[in-house]
Design brief:
alpha/beta; 188 residues; five-stranded mixed β-barrel; 5 helices; single chain
Length: 188
């Protein structure tokens, strides 16, 4: 498999979110599994395998901003579970000179962490986080490290509250068609 090239590489956590069979020709997809460790591992492996021009993350998200619904294009991602006070403020990795946020061309902010958000978190409001996920910060970090541009589209499945798990399971596959419309625009 080494040495394959693709312009567009999609990284999605689970096949239930986006089926390989519906993707246009010439677009590769890698399923990372859930969480930051799986996402960075899959991203680095895929970068070496495919040498993409652009990495596109599509996935589901819980909403923190109650006004939002549907498919959102993410413009900034931060790490919501890096919490090492007093060594560093929440969201920043201590003794690390890598960015604590990654930027792209969308308008919404995503907070990534290895937890399923089921309760209100005032820190997320203070950072103007719109949605929460479990992979994007790791994917964006891998892309940045290899000077690859990235985009992310998040489909809101739940309200990041006590009903999140059942809401997510019911709606995990609903964003696929909306994302495919965005992908077609990107490729045209």
């Amino acid at each position: 498999m080494a040495g394959m090239k693709t312009n567009y590489l999609i990284i999605t956590a689970l096949e239930s979110e986006l089926k390989r069979a519906v993707l246009p020709a010439g677009v590769e997809i890698v399923y990372s599994g859930i969480g930051k460790i799986n996402a960075v591992s899959a991203s680095l492996k895929a970068i070496h395998q495919y040498a993409p021009q652009m990495m596109i993350n599509f996935g589901t998200a819980g909403k923190v901003n109650p006004q939002l619904n549907g498919l959102l294009k993410i413009g900034k991602v931060i790490q919501r579970d890096m919490s090492t006070e007093p060594l560093a403020p929440r969201g920043k990795t201590p003794f690390c000179n890598k960015p604590f946020e990654y930027l792209s061309s969308g308008e919404f902010t995503c907070g990534t962490g290895d937890s399923f958000v089921t309760a209100h978190d005032p820190w997320l409001d203070a950072q103007s986080v719109d949605v929460v996920d479990m992979e994007l910060f790791a994917i964006a970090a891998a892309a940045y490290e290899h000077q690859i541009s990235w985009q992310s589209y998040k489909y809101i499945t739940d309200d990041a509250n006590e009903h999140s798990a059942s809401d997510w399971q019911a709606k995990v596959h609903h964003g696929q068609d909306l994302f495919l419309d965005q992908l077609k625009q990107l490729l045209s």
